[in-house]
Amino acid sequence: MKKVIPDCYWPSSANGAYVSHEAICVLNQGDEPAELDITLYFEDREPVSGYHVTVEARRTKHIRMDKLTNHAGQPVPQDTPYAAVVECSREVALQYSRVDTTQAELGMMTTLL
Asked: What are the DSSP E strand ranges found in the chain?
């Protein structure tokens, strides 16, 4: 199963005590663990892969993109538009959310995939 999130962006600036961040929330309703491999695509460089997450059976996992690193220790870059492709070993529900704290009013967007 493959899910695509074409509009990702993690700003480095913040306004106040809250931190801007993104998350991919996963619900695995199945009886076996789900293995997720995430590849990031950019406008001006080659894709970066090697981000791997396991979601145990009958569990949920909130993958904070600001805390995620790949097998080479590379974090998700800030202030860079990118797209994410999530390949899953089994059927899961995905939700992508972004919290933008660059303005005093704060902003949040979310979508189910």
From this structure: 2-8, 21-28, 34-42, 48-55, 59-64, 82-88, 93-100, 107-112
